[in-house]
Recover the amino acids of this structure.
């Protein structure tokens, strides 16, 4: 898939296909090559938290957009697979940020609502969709609502209802699917799929989450892993360092992946 149009069309197809799309998030060129070379990898997705940490910034749009897009572009150049970028809340101008991301080869993006007033969040989705259309590139917008990440809504039932309300509004404006991060139990996933539709819900897997096989059975479109993949790598690095400091050796089975 050498053309951006082909990669964009493929990413849209993967969201609509009956098989759950698993994206193992990457944060730099070498992690992208390692994951992209696996035969089961069908698309790549960046983790904004992980890219920011790699470059010495806190999460939450603290990293300059130019630096974020530079790393995203480096990731795109490692692979012929479709790449979706985590663009947080759009860095103050969702449409322009999407346009610039497409310019480095991105064909999909996460866009957070940060629980802003619904009209503002919808306007951001509209801007992102319009920017992709203006560029003429098939684009998979993973419109995120932070309902389950904030404490402003008191009950789980109200959170589910608000996530569905926001998600439907985003879908109506052309979002490909609705990303509802958080540690969701099976009942919540079922309710969200019921309210948004089959193959319209995107979730994050964290320790204790519903298994990918069950997510597929429930009709979820996509599961990602956010900063947890980098945490796995950093845990292995720290454990290896402790072993070395204690007089041990490098772990058996270590591969030359760089």
């Amino acid at each position: 898939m050498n053309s951006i149009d082909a990669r964009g069309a493929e990413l849209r197809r993967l969201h609509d296909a009956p098989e759950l799309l698993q994206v193992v998030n990457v944060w730099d060129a070498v992690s992208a090559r390692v994951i992209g070379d696996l035969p089961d990898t069908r698309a790549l997705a960046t983790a904004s938290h992980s890219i920011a940490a790699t470059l010495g910034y806190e999460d939450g749009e603290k990293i300059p957009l130019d630096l974020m897009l530079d790393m995203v572009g480096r990731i795109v150049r490692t692979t012929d697979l479709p790449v979706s970028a985590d663009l947080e809340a759009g860095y103050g101008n969702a449409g322009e940020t999407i346009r610039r991301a497409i310019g480095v080869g991105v064909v999909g993006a996460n866009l957070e609502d940060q629980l802003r007033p619904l009209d503002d969040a919808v306007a951001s989705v509209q801007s992102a969709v319009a920017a992709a259309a203006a560029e003429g590139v098939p684009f998979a917008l993973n419109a995120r609502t932070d309902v389950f990440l904030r404490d402003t809504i008191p009950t789980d039932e109200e959170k589910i209802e608000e996530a569905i309300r926001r998600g439907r509004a985003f879908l109506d404006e052309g979002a490909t699917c609705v990303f509802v991060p958080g540690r969701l139990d099976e009942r919540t996933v079922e309710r969200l799929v019921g309210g948004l539709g089959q193959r319209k819900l995107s979730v994050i897997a964290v320790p204790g989450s519903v298994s990918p096989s069950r997510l597929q059975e429930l009709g979820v479109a996509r599961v990602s892993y956010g900063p947890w993949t980098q945490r796995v790598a950093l845990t292995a690095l720290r454990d290896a360092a402790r072993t070395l400091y204690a007089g041990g050796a490098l772990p058996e089975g270590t591969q030359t992946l760089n």
Notes: The chain is about 45% helix and 10% strand. The chain has a mean pLDDT of 97. The longest helix spans residues 118-135.
